[in-house]
Each structure stands twice: as structure tokens, then as C-alpha cells.
Amino acid sequence: MTQDEPQTYSLVQAGETLGVSVAEIRSYVEEGLVSPGQDDAGQAVLTRIDMRRLWSAVTLHRDLGINLPGVAAVLRLREQFEQVHRDLETLVEIVERELGPDVWDRLWPEGRPRPAANVSVEGVTDLAEAVPPPGEAEAQTSDRETEGSAADGDAPADEGAST
Question: In the CATH hierarchy, which top-level class contains the domain 8-66?
């Protein structure tokens, strides 16, 4: 945040900043995409968080052509995803605190990496299966290089060649 950036924006300031009319902002408010507060004079104001949400709504609606109910659904899903991501990060921290940072080595003695905070629609088993144990990927690469050398009569591979 810069020194010049206000803590709150009037609807006029928000419209000028985002390149939309006050009427458009009111339509976003009516759709429930943002909920302005009020200043001491009773005027509607938007916080910086409201402005980021409004910017997302404007981008989705104006630039991508998504209707306002669709924008509301997208923003709601994004917030839910962000919450799940935060919850997963917290869970990983709790597991490491309670069971020790080497818990991942004990769970995957073959050396699988510490789980990232990834969310898979298919579930955690798909994520675990997608990551080969260390050494397995290197062995596959080494096998391919050996096969390529034998096919070329042990000639060095030209890495700059394209097909």
C-alpha cells in the first residue's frame, strides 16, 4: 500500500479507479458481490478488500462476459478454495508440530517429498500416486538415455536438434 492510497473509497472513487460507472457498482452491490460500509457522513464506502473483490467482479463480468450471478458463484468458489487451502496448510503445520517434521519421511520411507498444499478433485490418493519416489524418475530418464545411445551407435546425442 502506498501513502497516497486511501483506506476507503467512495463509490465515485471506486468507479474512477476501476473504470466503471457508479451505476455499475450499484448493480454489483445489488447482486451482493460487494457490501459497502458507511463513513461518518453516511456515504457508502468500500475498503481495499472490497475494492479487490470488486475488481475481480468487474474483470469477470466486463472482460470475460460472465453474468453477475455467475460472477457471484465464481467468487464464492474462489473464497471456498482459498479457505480449504488455508485449512490444509494449517493441517500440515499441526501434523508436523505433533508428529515431528520428519513425519513425511516416516510415512514415505522411499523418500516421497513433503506434501504440498494441493487440492485434488480426485482425492489425495491420486496426488500420492502422481509423485514417483525419488530415484524412480531418474532411473527412467537414465534408461531412456541408454536406449538412445545404443540406437545411435553410442554417438553423442545432439541436444540442439529439433524434430
Answer: mainly alpha
